[in-house]
UniProtKB/TrEMBL annotation:
<feature type="transmembrane region" description="Helical">
    <location>
        <begin position="47"/>
        <end position="64"/>
    </location>
</feature>
<dbReference type="InterPro" id="IPR007387">
    <property type="entry name" value="TRAP_DctQ"/>
</dbReference>
<feature type="transmembrane region" description="Helical">
    <location>
        <begin position="12"/>
        <end position="32"/>
    </location>
</feature>
<feature type="transmembrane region" description="Helical">
    <location>
        <begin position="85"/>
        <end position="110"/>
    </location>
</feature>
<keyword id="KW-1003">Cell membrane</keyword>
<feature type="transmembrane region" description="Helical">
    <location>
        <begin position="130"/>
        <end position="151"/>
    </location>
</feature>
<comment type="subunit">
    <text>The complex comprises the extracytoplasmic solute receptor protein and the two transmembrane proteins.</text>
</comment>
<protein>
    <recommendedName>
        <fullName>TRAP transporter small permease protein</fullName>
    </recommendedName>
</protein>
<keyword id="KW-1133">Transmembrane helix</keyword>
<comment type="function">
    <text>Part of the tripartite ATP-independent periplasmic (TRAP) transport system.</text>
</comment>
<keyword id="KW-0997">Cell inner membrane</keyword>
<feature type="domain" description="Tripartite ATP-independent periplasmic transporters DctQ component">
    <location>
        <begin position="23"/>
        <end position="155"/>
    </location>
</feature>
<keyword id="KW-0812">Transmembrane</keyword>
<comment type="similarity">
    <text>Belongs to the TRAP transporter small permease family.</text>
</comment>
<keyword id="KW-0813">Transport</keyword>
<dbReference type="Pfam" id="PF04290">
    <property type="entry name" value="DctQ"/>
</dbReference>
<dbReference type="InterPro" id="IPR055348">
    <property type="entry name" value="DctQ"/>
</dbReference>
Amino acid sequence: MNKIISAIDKLLQLSLIAMISTIILAVLWQVLSRYLLQSPSSGSEEIARFLLIWISLLGAVYSYRMKMHLGLDVLVKKMQPKQELATQLLCHFLVLAFSVSVLFLGGINLVILTFNPVQISAALGIHMGYVYMVLPLSGVLMSLSALNELVTTWQQRMLQKEVH
């Protein structure tokens, strides 16, 4: 499972780099077309908005995987080892529950709603379902990460028990 997670991490990292590079170019073009050409590009603004959605959700998955997300662990660090383990497991379980229920299931419902009846973006003319497809995608990736964290945390605890 670690090889799969590692491959997903690398793909996610490269995808985020590509999307951030693209959003920079889109915003740069928007500024240049507005101020130098006196003709604002509506397509570049929509591209930037849609990319921001994708970067935000996939970036949350990546930051959770790399343990770079915001977290208040002041109280957790003061707990006894058993309480700390229980709290960590609870947190990862809550991330899993949120990922499955809100991101994955809610995302699928939103994608279905935007494909039937079809909702088209104003400037680019693409189906909004493709834009919202990032919700179930990030739900699956976040769920995999949360499951991996649950298993890893539990295994580390079992190894600590064997040593003592």
